[in-house]
């Protein structure tokens, strides 16, 4: 091997003709590869098992075990199944290319060997192998990261939320039982503590929902969206009895998706519509369905404060808000959650809005169920 060439890969050559082995050995070592040679299939299996190479050049026509059989055995063993196998075949030999790929081969080289062809085919497979290894490494890293995120979410949901609930409940009791004994400044501190505690609790809950929207296992079922919207509105009207809002709900609107996730998305969209119409004289919120380019499009529309679309380019990014907390309370996580949910359903979400003229959010879902009663 030329010492000026860095080690580029470990290659195992399998051929029952010593002259072929020597020729390939010389060609590849001069290019900087570490090369091992064996004369039959049994030796190849042992060599690959003891020290798996990066790539195998495997002759088809051999006694006892031919190349196809060797490749099948390699692919049936966990430690060797991912090793790329390039078949070697003489031009005058019967070579079943379909079978070669069926048993797990990735390429083939014909004899007599051409240096440039051998190098190109070997380098291509090693590049692919390196890319696969990098992808596997990234996937492993992502899996570890996901495990960390799940553990972190568990910590938040079980530990931090419990501690925060104690703080919030204690603050509430202080205000209820001892407010009369405190001066106005002390009361203001307690009220601020209560407000910020509740806001922190809302942020944690919204972050958990955002996390769940990305990792929860989905089930696709027929859904009556109109029924879900009516359920959500009932809760909104109970929570905000002071706000008299007119609701227009299209009946019998159906889709196919994960009911739990779709409900979270609609809760966020309707909750936002309810919030941003709070200062409107005659608030109206509408849910319905359109057909655009032969695709069902669902929408939530309101006549609230709206927003400037030119300033809303990052609207679906977590914590990005178009209104201050003094104007409208919120965490800036709801729309990010909605987008994640729609994307998981292979749909799209977009909006139309204008300042003081309300906003409409449109979304699509991958599948549409037959229009029938559920």
From TrEMBL:
It holds the Pfam family Response_reg. It catalyses: ATP + protein L-histidine = ADP + protein N-phospho-L-histidine. PROSITE patterns: HIS_KIN, RESPONSE_REGULATORY. Residues 10-126 form the Response regulatory domain. Keywords: ATP-binding, Kinase, Nucleotide-binding, Phosphoprotein, Transferase, Two-component regulatory system. Its EC number is 2.7.13.3. The keyword Transferase applies. SMART domains: HATPase_c (SM00387), HisKA (SM00388), REC (SM00448). CDD domains: HisKA, REC_PA4781-like. One of its GO terms (molecular function) is protein kinase activator activity. This is histidine kinase.
């Amino acid at each position: 091997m030329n010492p000026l060439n860095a080690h580029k890969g470990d290659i195992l050559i399998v051929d029952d003709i010593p002259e072929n082995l020597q020729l390939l050995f010389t060609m590849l070592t001069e290019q900087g590869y570490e090369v091992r040679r064996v004369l039959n299939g049994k030796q190849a299996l042992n060599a690959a098992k003891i020290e798996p190479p990066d790539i195998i050049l495997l002759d088809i026509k051999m006694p006892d075990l031919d190349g196809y059989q060797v490749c099948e055995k390699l692919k049936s063993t966990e430690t060797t199944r991912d090793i790329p196998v390039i078949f070697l075949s003489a031009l005058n030999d019967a070579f079943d290319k379909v079978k070669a790929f069926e048993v797990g081969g990735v390429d083939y080289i014909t004899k007599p060997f051409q240096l440039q062809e051998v190098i190109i085919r070997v380098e291509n497979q090693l590049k692919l192998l390196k890319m696969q290894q990098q992808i596997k490494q990234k996937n492993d890293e992502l899996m570890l990261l996901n495990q960390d995120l799940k553990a972190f979410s568990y910590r938040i949901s079980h530990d931090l939320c419990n501690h925060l609930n104690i703080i919030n409940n204690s603050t509430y009791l202080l205000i209820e039982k001892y407010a009369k004994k405190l001066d106005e400044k002390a009361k203001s501190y307690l009220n601020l503590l209560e407000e910020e505690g509740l806001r922190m609790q809302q942020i944690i809950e919204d972050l958990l929902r955002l996390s769940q929207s990305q990792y929860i296992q989905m089930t696709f079922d027929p859904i009556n969206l109109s029924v879900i919207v009516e359920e959500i509105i009932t809760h909104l009207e109970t929570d905000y009895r002071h706000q008299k809002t007119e609701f227009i709900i299209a009946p019998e609107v159906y889709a196919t998706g994960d009911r739990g996730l779709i409900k979270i998305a609609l809760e966020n969209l309707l909750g936002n519509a309810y919030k941003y119409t709070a200062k409107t004289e005659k608030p109206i919120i509408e849910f319905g369905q359109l057909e655009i380019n032969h695709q069902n499009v669902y929408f939530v529309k309101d006549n609230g404060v709206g927003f400037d679309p030119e300033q809303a380019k990052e609207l679906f990014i977590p914590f990005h808000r178009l209104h201050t907390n003094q104007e409208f309370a919120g965490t800036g996580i709801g729309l990010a959650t909605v987008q994640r949910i729609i994307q998981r359903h292979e749909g799209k979400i977009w909006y139309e809005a204008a300042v003081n003229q309300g906003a409409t959010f449109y979304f699509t879902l991958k599948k549409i169920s037959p229009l029938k009663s559920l």
